[in-house]
Amino acid sequence: MKINRREFMGGALGASALAGFPMPAISQSAPIRIGCITSLVGGYSQFGQNHVRGMEIAAEAINAAGGVNGRKLEIVVRSDDLKPETAVAAARELAASGVRIFGGVNSSGVALALSGIMGELDSVLLTAAAHGNNLTHEDFRPNYFRVTDYSAMRIGAGSHLMAQRYPNVRVWGSISPDIQVGRSVVEVYNSRLPEAYRKLHNAEVQLKDTVWVKFGATDYRNEIARLISQGIEGLVIGVGGTDEATFLQQATQLGLASRLKAMYTTGSEFVAPMALKNRMPANFWSGFHWYYGAYRDNPIAKQVVETFRAKGYGQHPDGFIGMAHTVVLAIAAAMKNGAGDSSKELIPALEGLKFDTVKGPTTLRKEDHQALCDVNYALIGPANNQDGWEVIDSARIDGTPFAGDPTPGIALKFG
Fold it and tell me: Leucine-binding protein domain location, by residue (predicted)?
């Protein structure tokens, strides 16, 4: 594994510079190199680290079984520092060395920047986390694929889950960062939560004004005071990563959490319970790209969990592990079907691909390259155990009904 944390700024290789590099010939025995571009610094570094681990676990298992058509897989890592310009520079640098396949990526903004140059680089990008609705709709690019669910699916399924589990919670609030993925979360919630209560209970809910926050904020006291003043009973939380843990800690200290009968999130998985431990609030549903506990009967998931633990990474692999693993499985499946390394061959091989993953059967929808898969949520609370928290309940929801119609090049519409 090669890790480079440098920030490739002013000297980024443009199209003309890239053309000056001789492209290495690819032999049938040469390794298949996959670039993992992800966040290895800051509040999302835990997710980025697990992108690397997930891709490497998949590559190691495939290589041990003989590789893909006799070729080994090699994962090459670069940090994007959550900055689009850094990610673009890293992709250009890797493309100059012959890398044509990219995966990982946490931020929707980074994913958008990378998807915009994939055609120029004759490359494909498969993201394992970025959730912005725009990526497979108005900003769709043919060289871009998403192997996980996204805001429309996650918050749509979560809203249905809340209506099922909390039929009497009728006043809802929301807090979200004023960035693309945060706006996507709120757009879906504003439509799907009332829809779910009408469908399941023939009842109306009251949605209070969204409290918008700065991405990366560390002080939520004013925003929490606003939420308390709204008299809400339920809350959708759009802030993610360590921001979510900080918000929950302050919400507990300031008395907001104890007032709420239900909370659900876009999905920072185990971040909040690992930070807060036995200070976790009640009725907190965390969204997951993949919750391993819901797939104990899945042989692929079982192998990933066992390998994760055997390597000493911990006891609880998160969904970033699972979806990064899925990136590699998708590439391997496409190439085993006869595709080569180039985007000209990989794109048609990936379009409509049906393959087995840690979440069971997954399809990459042909029209917009969006994965059709399960959506996972887990109810997490404090516990008197080694972790200080436990999963009390979980939900494994078919995400297809919430995926929306494929509208590549056109914004997703609700209502």
Answer: 31-374
Do 53 and 313 contact (CB within 8 A), yes or no?
A: yes
The model's pLDDT over 375-399, given as tens digits with 9 standing for 90+, comes to 999 999 999 999 999 999 999 999 9
How many Cβ atoms sit within 10 Å of the Cβ of residue 167?
12
Between CA 61 and CA 261 the distance in angstroms is 44
- The predicted-structure confidence for 131-177, as pLDDT tens digits, reads as follows 999 999 999 999 999 999 999 999 999 999 999 999 999 999 999 99
CA distance 352 to 329: 14
Structure tokens, 91: 């992709």
Instruction: Specify the CATH number for 152-288+375-402; select among 3.10.129.10, 3.40.1790.10, 3.75.10.10, 3.40.50.2300.
Output: 3.40.50.2300
Helix axes 108-118, 180-201, angle to 10 degrees: 110
Q: Which residues contact 202 (CB under 8 A, 6 or more apart)?
A: none
Task: State the span(s) of the chain assigned CATH 3.40.50.2300.
Answer: 2-149+294-372, 152-288+375-402
The pTM assigned to this predicted structure is: 0.90
